Amino acid sequence: MEEKIIKKPFYKKWWFWVIAIILFISFVNSLGDNEKEQQNILNNDVDSIENSPIPTKTPIPKEPIIKITAEKLFEESEANEVAFDVKYKGKQVEVTGIINSIGKDILDTPYVSLETNNLISIVQCMFSKNDIGKLSLLQKNSKITINGTVDGKLLNIIIRKSEIVE
User: Fold this and answer.
1) What topology is assigned to 66-164 in CATH?
2) What is the DSSP string of 57-123?
3) Is the pTM of this model over 0.85?
4) How confident is the model over 156-166, as pLDDT tens digits?
5) Which residues pair with 128 in a beta bridge?
6) 114, 125 in Cβ contact below 8 A?
7) Per-domain residue ranges for the chain?
C-alpha cells in the first residue's frame, strides 16, 4: 500500500515562526522609534515657543460712553425702536435723570427707575445685589447719573450692569 504523506499545517512549520518573530520584533521597534520621534517634535516645539518673542496685547479700542438724559433716550426709542436698538443696544450709556422709584424686581434684583416724558414707561437701571447699600442712600425725585449697558426696550428701557456715577 501506498503511504500517504501528511503535510503539516503552515503554522506548525519552523520557518513560519521565524518570520513571525522577525515581524513582531520589527513592529515593536517601530513603536519605540515613533515615541522618540514624537518626543523630539515635542522638544522642538517647546524650544520654539521659549525662543519666540512674547506677543504684546494691542489695546482694544473702547467705544465712547454715550451721555444722554433719560427723557431723550426714551424719545429716541419712541421715534424709531429699530434705530434705537442699532444705536444703543449693547452700548454703554451714561444716563442722567430724576429718580422715579427705587426698588427690587420679582427676582430680587435692585433697580432705580428714572422719569421720562411718558407716565407708563420709564428707564429702569438694574444694579447688582452688592449695590444695595448705595441704593439705600438714594431719594426719590433727586437727580442722578447712572452708567450702564442698554439691554433694549420692552415696556421700559432696561439698562443692565448699572453703576452710580459719583
Assistant:
1) OB fold (Dihydrolipoamide Acetyltransferase, E2P) (2.40.50)
2) PPPPPPPPPEEEEHHHHHHHHHH-HHHHHHHHTT-EEEEEEEEEEEEE-TT--EEEEE--SSSS--E
3) no
4) 899 999 999 87
5) none
6) yes
7) 10-51, 66-164
